[in-house]
Amino acid sequence: MRQHQLVAECAAAVEVAAAAAQACGSDRPGAIHRVSMSLQTVERAIFRARRAHRTVARRRRSRHAALRRHAETVVATLRAAEKELDGTNPNRALEALAGLLLRIAGSSAASRTGVLLPDSLTGPYEHIRVRDFELLRTAGVVLMVLAAAAAVVVLDVPDIAAVTIIMGVGVLSALALFGVAWTKMLALFELMKSG
User: Is the separation of the CB atoms in 3 and 45 below 8 Å?
Assistant: First the structure.
């Protein structure tokens, strides 16, 4: 269920952090990288949590703004804790991250999206603005695909080549805008292909 997505992402990130704490030697850098990648997924889930829990009517903009602002401070807190991974004691930083993730998961499981982390933890990061650009990146991919389709029509490219060109532009633009998470656009490509 969508409303439990944040809990699942936090649990997965805690598992990755625990594996990174156990890693040593040449395995350590890759494990720390996996922690950063899992935190990126958690950040997206945090921004989606206010919509997934469906506790606020769409037209209640003030409540949505407050929840969005809280999500920004929670993500800023997580990013500050993540920066400590590059410090002198990465195991302590991993432990702190796991603690934050467990608190976030607990609050999300209780449908408290406005208090994912207490103000005592997020207070120092209230002035930091963090934005979720996933919608803009998705729009960028769609625009690139539409531009490729228009170019194919204008240039009168044969059908087989046209499909290859359009899908190639779609995949390359998804890679450019989403990086390693480009596969999330596959559902959109299937939708466009069937049309």
Answer: no
What pLDDT, in 10s, does the model give residues 25-50?
A: 888 888 888 888 888 888 888 888 77
108-131 confidence digits (pLDDT tens): 888 777 778 787 777 776 777 776
Q: Read off the DSSP letter of residue 89.
A: -
pLDDT in tens, 64-81: 677 788 788 888 888 888
Q: If you search the block for the tokens 């969005």, which residue do you land on?
A: 68
Contacts of 63 (CB under 8 A, 6+ apart): 56
Give the number of other Cβ atoms within 10 Å of residue 60's Cβ: 12
Record the pTM.
0.66
Let me know: does 34 contact 16? Beta carbons within 8 Å. yes
Show the tokens assigned to 127: 């002035």
**Which 8-state DSSP code applies to residue 127?**
T
Taking the C-alpha atoms of residue 191 and residue 145, their distance in angstroms, rounded to an integer, is: 12
Q: What is the dihedral of CA 135, 5, 71, 113, to 10 degrees?
A: 130
